Amino acid sequence: xxxxxxxxxxxxxxxxxxxxxxxxxxxxxxxxxxxxxxxxxxxxxxxxxxxxxxxxxxxxxxxxxxxxxxxxxxxxxxxxxxxxxxxxxxxxxxxxxxxxxxxxxxxxxxxxxxxxxxxxxxxxxxxxxxxxxxxxxxxxxxxxxxxxxxxxxxxxxxxxxxxxxxxxxxxxxxxxxxxxxxxxxxxxxxxxxxxxxxxxxxxxxxxxxxxxxxxxxxxxxxxxxxxxxxxxxxxxxxxxxxxxxxxxxxxxxxxxxxxxxxxxxxxxxxxxxxxxxxxxxxxxxxxxxxxxxxxxxxxxxxxxxxxxxxxxxxxxxxxxxxxxxxxxxxxxxxxxxxxxxxxxxxxxxxxxxxxxxxxxxxxxxxxxxxxxxxxxxxxxxxxxxxxxxxxxxxxxx
Length: 397
What we know:
single chain; mainly alpha; Growth Hormone, Chain: A
């Protein structure tokens, strides 16, 4: 296993406390990202709107996927720029663009090029804002609690996946989708206002001495994590895109139970087991988490009631809740501070690429053979990458 850079080894200073993560700049950037994701996660209901205006499964998949087509290649570029320049303009610009493009969905009342264009703009906004926020959070996280800190940062993100969908479902059912689109834009504006108070970190000063994107992407210490993130992103995006449509087709009322259950499990495992990856190792936690995530994706295709969706949502959240921060911490551990923006952007880009590719590919599997077959193929893909990651981990011991 490759040695960690010197600035990634645990310091000899007294260990930090959990309280240090829940106040000051780290809390502010976490809250800004939380508000941004309230807007982002409200659009988990967009497939329902698209279906209502006449879109087929493959068209729904394409419209949802162009978000990632825009975000994925842009994210590494933003990573290079945030290493070299200030973080704040990227988050503020991304928040404003997300607010404007979200509000503009009120004009997307029929199937046309407009939904595609607006999703592209949302993808650009996401690449800018989320890369800046995650880089800032990694800068502010104590080294000895890095996985826990990034897990807490992610907890606030995960809460939006249940909270935003629940609120969005209530707004849509009472006032319609236009009201939902306008309300979601307010959250993006609030995110920018909160982030304005986050102090800038100084790691960008040494960025010109950093590694290239290709050197990071091909590093034996981190590329297995990027691959797992890619394939897990495919499963994640497929589930969040098609669970609302599947629930609607099965006549399941309030499909938000899946998202609330997923959120509850993910938050619980991060709060109760947040230090597992710091204590026992990133890979030791990532492997069983990936296994649980794989089982959950297979089970989604066989859920037929609100209770079943709640149960598989819990498994889905438990697996993903520990997997994502463990892999994230592994990537940060294995890279230097001057490469942090690029490393975080590549990790996020691999996940976004998986989300995008998964939606495009698996939506066509659903159109041809149905949802049960689609989720079976998704879980088989994840099983293959699980075996690969486990073998790489054993070879590195």
